[in-house]
Amino acid sequence: MYLHQSLDSITISKNNRTDGYDYESILNRWMAEDFSNITIEIEILLGLYNNGLYTGDKITKKSEAEEQEYISHFFN
Predict the structure, then answer these.
(1) Which pLDDT tens digit goes with each residue over 15-67?
(2) pLDDT at res. 50
(3) Residue (of 22, 39, 21, 29) closest to 3 by Cα position
(4) Does residue 51 contact residue 73 with C-beta atoms inside 8 Å?
(5) pLDDT score recorded for residue 69
(6) For a FRET experiment, which of 53, 59, 60, 75 has its CA 20 to 30 Å from that of 66?
(7) Predicted local confidence at residue 57, as pLDDT
(8) Considering only CA atoms, which of 36, 29, 31, 40 is closest in space to residue 8?
(9) Could you tell me which of 66, 70, 3, 74 has the C-alpha nearest to residue 33?
(10) What is the predicted pLDDT for the residue at 76?
(11) How far apart are CA 41 and CA 27, in angstroms?
């Protein structure tokens, strides 16, 4: 729901990759509820703030229960 509401305010032109991991393709997959490559996609999006290179901690996929807890805490 949040992504649907915020999509119009997101600038898509920051990433022009052609391997299926461009900014717009990632957002479109998420809008279709496809999170199968979430860890790679998060690193790519965070890398946009650092000249395309993500240098932070390892990103891991959360369990369904952890996701629901996060959603309830921040969005309900």
Answers:
(1) 666 677 888 888 889 989 999 999 999 988 888 777 777 888 888 888 989 98
(2) 73
(3) 29
(4) no
(5) 95
(6) 53
(7) 87
(8) 31
(9) 3
(10) 80
(11) 9
pLDDT of residue 49: 75
Is 43 in a helix, a strand, or coil?
helix
Tokens of 4: 């649907």
Give me the residue label for tokens 């369904």. 64
Query: Beta-carbon neighbour count of residue 50 at 10 Å?
Result: 10
Give residue 33's domain range.
2-75
Task: Using CB atoms within 10 Å of the CB of residue 41, give its burial: 0 to 12 exposed, 13 to 18 middle, 19+ buried.
Answer: buried
User: Which pLDDT score, from 0 to 100, does residue 68 have?
Assistant: 92
Q: Considering only CA atoms, which of 7, 69, 14, 60 is closest in space to residue 38? A: 60
Side-chain-facing half-sphere of 39: CA atoms under 13 Å: 8
Q: What is the total count of domains within the chain?
A: 1
57 DSSP 8-state letter: S
